[in-house]
């Protein structure tokens, strides 16, 4: 019996017994079995499948089940439908097998740079092994609210989902953001708000609006590293202003402003990344004064807003609250506290610039997805978000002081223990580039992702500092690694000095 | 009795009778009534609301209902919660009332430009009055599939939704796209595919990767207008190659290539926007030859892919199928045929460039939203999408020939009646800028949005052509307008010649 004999017979009854008791639906059973027989070449390409009716009769299932199964097989490239002639087994185009995303991080080697770190952050590693990450563990976030909101949007009038959204962003969300901003004492009408795909896109849009290649953008040093790469890609020069515990070094800010005539100064006023410290009121006022003198537009990135307990509890001065969006462009979003995946951020600015940015957004991406914006609107307007944010803060408060003590015990120094936020900026007393490479490449167990201080400086010079996420330090392997490394270092220093 | 007397009493029993029979939930009844009384200042700011327990008892509802209502009132800025002290009526920050999006289009005036047209396209006008639109009416799309997919994603493990996606895009979707491309004879592994927020973002990313200010990008003339603005915003010079019914004017293409040394040539091979014509095989080959000679990278925008019945039925040659992603970067997406709002598109290119673009995407927007990508994956893999696309094509086929006949009857000329697609490129015999302004500003009834030919040319010169969407021409007002205008024009011409 040759293969050519098997094919027609097999095609006549391509599937064995189907079970109504199985967890798998009848449709999926058919799909799986037919696909397997095609893969194993028991069903030959070019041969005709039985008609819907005949298949249904011979297997005792409804024609609808067969139609659904055949459709899925067409979608997966196993069958093709020839109009009027029925379904045929496809000559499958050579498809290279699906290559899974490697679960081990890439070796850093000499390419330890911003892109390397960010790429590794997106690897699907268990959260416990990523003290260098900038996000909270998934189970800290309010997955149920997001899932509920998605289901509820799925139940709405479907046509809402089909058209392009409004380029400026979903209006009810912008109205809700107006209220949120009002509580921060920032007055902004919905016309002054433009939604973005996270703060990252907002920064990119603003930088493109304000700078041409060769222009200077001031950032804090240290600061969020991704924007260095983003601004450099636009041809901008990125110059760092030393950040002190209460804000930038004002003398240096004034000097650099006079020297470089920067177009923009990007700053986290509240819960600065990576130190989790906030701007003092006095410095906020001086920053605005210097910006006015040198005609610098300030970009206030307030992504950690909801991790701060509020200015009634702890001091926090927002530049936009002082300046009321004249010289300050305010950015924030929900990637840190609701769900990164929604990619919902926003810009609040003057009405005229909001309009220009909405036009620019059209040119860059047409619109942002309404869906994420509807989810955020629903969660914000239903009131559970406040409590959720408060729970996150309480939980972080509990971990933060414990983590700082533990860090000091294993030999790191924390000069400024922040009163809020998820980051601690710790001094390891050795080059943290080397430490990060050893953490990633350690022989036993999976790698540990650290965020070395060099990344947070626009100069990228080696640093003894690193950023640690207090919510991602639970794995004992992290502590074992730190203890071992820092003890060895100390031993090395001792042996050298002896 | 003064107001100050009313406040405390009112706060003690802030809501009248609640109804369990009402369609509105008890929670929402409380929210609505309390909010109204605060708005009308019957409940005064600063006064304390009754405790949860007391409110629940006095109104005969469960404490959970009251908690939910108070939470919503906090979220809406009516109440504030003071830890340990209860809920208080807020001193409301002066919030400017929500300004609705104007439902009438903006006057065109002298600013008839790309941004003007696009802005008006996003106004929420009934589809029938937008023959200039580039999308199909919402009811043509498969809203049920999108809504089903959203609900089903909302039922999945919530933690999936919380983290950032993979910057290159949701892997199962990229695997599905590999199969889709294989059917078009384009070989691409998932590593060669990067998802984008629609083709618009894909074009922006590619242009940023390949050009510096002053570089030239070739486009077809006419072509999709939004990219002119997008490229100009990058400082690129946008130069048009005359597009003939079977592809570009090759002699001009070679001349312009030699003259401008362009970095990129962006082309719709299949169902070119705005003419709905496709590239012939012979021209496709010559385009690649010229591109190789002058070292031009080709960007093949195949957004209308699924509106074409397939090359077995009608000729259609894709440059990427000939070149296999060596010199050709292939872009497509699902905004036209699934739902614009999902903002899911993709780039297929060489493995090395895919990696560079994924890094660039990180710098621009970190990641695209997983949610839209999961929706598209679900719809593509379940097989109903093919039939849906076929239904759309059949429906367009029916309308297209009828529309062409009707256009000719009212005095427009259609030189090349396209065999597929949604657009007809028609010659009105008069300046269509003028026609578009008159259509938008007509005295009776709402405006009609036309897409005048000038927009589709990088030179922006006045044109007698315009793009009409055959799916958006059903409103008799459109035909009355065209008939009247073109008759007047003819009468004017006659009176001039007499």
UniProtKB/TrEMBL annotation, chains A, B:
Please tell me whether the keyword NADP is annotated for this protein: no
CDD domains documented for this protein: AAT_like (cd00609), WHTH_GntR (cd07377)
Superkingdom of source: Bacteria
HTH gntR-type domain: from which residue to which, for each copy?
24-92
One GO MF term attached to the UniProt entry: DNA-binding transcription factor activity
Give yes or no: UniProt keyword NADP: no
Alphabetically list the UniProt keywords: Aminotransferase, DNA-binding, Pyridoxal phosphate, Transcription, Transcription regulation, Transferase
Q: Which family does it belong to?
A: In the C-terminal section; belongs to the class-I pyridoxal-phosphate-dependent aminotransferase family.
Query: What protein does this entry describe?
Result: Aminotransferase class I/II-fold pyridoxal phosphate-dependent enzyme
- According to its UniProt entry, this protein's organism is Pseudoduganella dura
Lineage, uppermost ranks? Bacteria, Pseudomonadati, Pseudomonadota, Betaproteobacteria, Burkholderiales
């Amino acid at each position: 019996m040759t293969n050519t004999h098997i094919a027609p017979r097999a095609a006549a009854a391509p599937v064995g017994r189907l079970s109504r008791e199985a967890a798998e639906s009848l449709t999926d059973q058919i799909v799986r079995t037919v696909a397997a027989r095609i893969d194993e070449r028991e069903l030959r390409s070019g041969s005709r499948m039985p008609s819907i009716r005949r298949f249904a009769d011979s297997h005792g299932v409804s024609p609808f089940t067969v139609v659904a199964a055949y459709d899925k097989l067409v979608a997966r490239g196993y069958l093709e439908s020839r109009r009027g002639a029925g379904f045929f087994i496809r000559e499958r185009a050579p498809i290279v097998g699906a290559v899974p995303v490697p679960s081990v991080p890439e070796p850093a080697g000499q390419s330890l740079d911003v892109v390397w770190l960010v790429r590794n952050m997106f690897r699907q590693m268990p959260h416990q092994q990523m003290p260098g990450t900038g996000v909270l563990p998934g189970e800290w976030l309010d997955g149920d609210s997001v899932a509920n909101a998605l289901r509820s949007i799925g139940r709405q009038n479907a046509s809402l989902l089909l058209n392009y959204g409004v380029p400026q962003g979903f209006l009810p969300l912008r109205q809700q953001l107006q209220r949120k901003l009002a509580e921060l004492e920032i007055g902004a009408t919905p016309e002054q708000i433009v939604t973005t795909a996270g703060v990252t896109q907002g920064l990119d849009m603003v930088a493109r609006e304000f700078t041409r290649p060769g222009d200077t953008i001031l950032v804090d040093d240290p600061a969020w590293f991704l924007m260095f790469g983003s601004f450099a890609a636009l041809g901008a020069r990125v110059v760092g202003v030393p950040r002190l515990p209460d804000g930038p070094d004002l003398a240096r800010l004034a000097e650099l402003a006079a020297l470089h005539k920067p177009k923009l100064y990007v700053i986290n006023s509240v819960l600065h990344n990576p130190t989790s410290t906030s701007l003092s009121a006095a410095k906020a006022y001086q920053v605005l004064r210097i910006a006015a003198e040198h005609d610098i537009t300030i970009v206030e990135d307030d992504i950690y807003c909801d991790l701060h307990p509020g200015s009634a509890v702890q001091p926090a001065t927002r530049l936009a609250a002082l300046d009321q969006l004249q010289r300050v462009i305010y950015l924030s979003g929900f990637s840190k506290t609701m769900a990164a995946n929604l990619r919902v951020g926003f810009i609040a600015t003057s009405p005229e610039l909001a309009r220009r940015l909405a036009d620019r957004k059209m040119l860059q991406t047409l619109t942002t997805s309404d869906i994420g914006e509807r989810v955020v609107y629903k969660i914000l307007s239903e009131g559970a978000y406040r409590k959720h944010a408060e729970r996150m803060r309480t939980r972080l408060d509990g971990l933060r002081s414990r983590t700082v003590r533990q860090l000091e015990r294993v030999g790191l120094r924390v000069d400024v223990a922040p009163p809020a936020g998820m980051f601690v900026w710790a001094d390891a007393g050795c080059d943290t580039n080397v430490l990060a490479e050893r953490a990633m490449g350690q022989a036993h167990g999976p790698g540990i992702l650290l965020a070395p201080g060099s990344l947070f400086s626009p100069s990228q010079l080696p640093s003894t500092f690193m950023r640690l996420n207090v919510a991602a330090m639970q794995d004992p392997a992290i502590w074992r690694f730190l203890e071992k490394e820092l003890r060895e270092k100390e031993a090395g220093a001792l042996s050298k000095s002896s």
